[in-house]
Amino acid sequence: MGLPETRTGTKAPLAISVLDLVPRLPGSSDEEALRQAVSLAQHAEKWGYARYWTAEHHDMPGLASSSPEVLLAHIGAKTERIRLGSGAVLLPHYSPLKVAEWFRLLAALYPGRVDLGLGRAPGGGAHTVMALSGNFLARVAELPKTIASLLELLQDAYEYEGHAVTARPQPQVGPAVWLLGTNKKSAEYAAKFGTGYVFGQFMSEHVGVDVDVLASYRAEFTPSALQSAPKTMVAVSVICAGKEREAAHWVQVLDETAKQAGRGSFRSISGTPHSVYNQLKNLQHEYAVNEFLIVCPIPDYAARLECYRLLAEVLRELDGV
Prior knowledge:
By secondary structure, this protein is of the alpha/beta class. 43% of the residues lie in helices and 17% in strands.
């Protein structure tokens, strides 16, 4: 399970979790991508990962997860212990009542295992976003009110026009709430509303983790009924392989793909298991964060699964977890 927030540096054990974008690889199908998502969650549970989170994207040909709440319900039935979460539900698109109902239902089905991760990105192209929810920018402007309403619903404290409205079912253990982002605005919301915070380093413009974002969240955190102290995770891209040349090969493949798509050079923590471990421990010490959400972008299902296995194995060896 995840570790409490600490400033102790590299002596603290390192927790790792999976963030799965559910890629549909070339020559594969959406059905195969979803089968691979289930397989990854089952293996992650066996290997000791703390959480399995899945993302939300819309009308992106290479990704098969548009509804985290549906996929998590299926994966929950195929696993036993691993925490299940969204990374993230894109809240501006949805009614806070509906999101509360989705994740309270998941929490009732899988007690003590559910994380509700929230984001404010569009999750797709302009026309797709308009088809999904209309004026996205106006909805983003209303996000503080939307978050407040969602949290009230999760605490049975919400009213609409003076009438109490309850998000049902009412699980004994509700979902843990996290906000995800890459800048100080998302950190500001997480601190204000007293939720956990995940810095999405793998999709950030910064080369490393922006220490000011994490520091501002911790400094401004307001305890809430949901959470009494700040909790942070960092989402990172990792390529881990048994040999250095194999890891370098996948980095080269992904770098070429990024350049062909008109994007900048691909950035990822990469190398053999011990090398990747040392890089993560350095980040853990520098940013006082004890849990990482691992995104493995390798475009090969077997090699991707091996990446997660090797990382879990080296943590058992060196951290004893």
